Write the structure tokens for this entry.
Amino acid sequence: MRRVCSAGHSAVAERPVEPAEHAEHAAARAAARAAAGPTQPSVRRMREFGVRPDRALGQNFLIDSNILGVIERAARLAPGDVVLEVGGGVGVLSEHLAARAAHVHVVEIDVRLREALLDATGGYANVTVHWADAMALDLAALDPAPGKVVANLPYGVAASVLLRTIEELPGVGSWVAMVQREVGARLAASPAGAASPAGAAGAKRAGGEKGAYGAPSVLAQLACEVRVLRAIPRTVFHPVPNVDSVLVGMRRRADGERVSGALRALVAGAFAHRRKTLAGSLALAGGAGSRARAGGEGSLPPRTREQVREALTALGHPPDARAQRLSPDDFRALARLLGYE
């Protein structure tokens, strides 16, 4: 997928040029398109603007427009929606969203795609293009504030982008994103020994094994219901990637509380040493004194192994339980028992 994270890029919001300003080039482009015959927008723009996908950046552009309808239906787009799209690429999803939503924020880091992306979005006054690193962009400053995230996410940062938007955009209620199959399975995974939820079952139907339950699973599921909706064939991308993709859907839980820095630190420490017991992993990770590896602010006050074991027993788990056994709600309850929340 398209890589969106690179050091040194700052956010620059750019509203599209008005259609009239494209007049001097529009006739020439229209003639060239007519001569070439009808073709898929991504393919046409790659040819017209000389775009060459950069494998080093993980660029795989969507070239099957049928998938756009699948994404639209999954996202349940409505005319009043404000949508955030991360990784605009050559704009095939961007223009589809723009025609169906009140406003679309498109984030793209690769300025070499400027002509192609603005060709897709230039005719829409309801699109703002942000030339920025999606992991550094000030999401809270987006105006109007997004209510949905719909994106074809880069493999390398997909989980990080989703977790960041969950945390920093409390007004977002739903997400639909194409991600690497393993990432989708991981986000929807269930604790060890638990019955597989619908999301995990969806992952298996999508051709993937049950995902490894870990910190991303817990952090996503503390706030959202997560489901793997369907498999996405490799052939819908150019160039064809070496990994499989799935469409993931997330919906914010009605009872979902904001995940505090202390809770993120606890979850990160608990999974830092997967072969150890939870109490042992926290101790080896620096325990409560360590700074959150998952982006949490601050540090946790120290707790002994015995205090952690007693809290696990109070939750109905063996004192030597591993992190993989605890559900997201168990982790929140554990944080409260240990006095972190």
About this structure: The beta strands are 12-14, 61-62, 82-86, 103-108, 127-131, 148-152, 174-180, 224-232, 237-238, 245-252. The first strand starts at residue 12 and ends at 14.
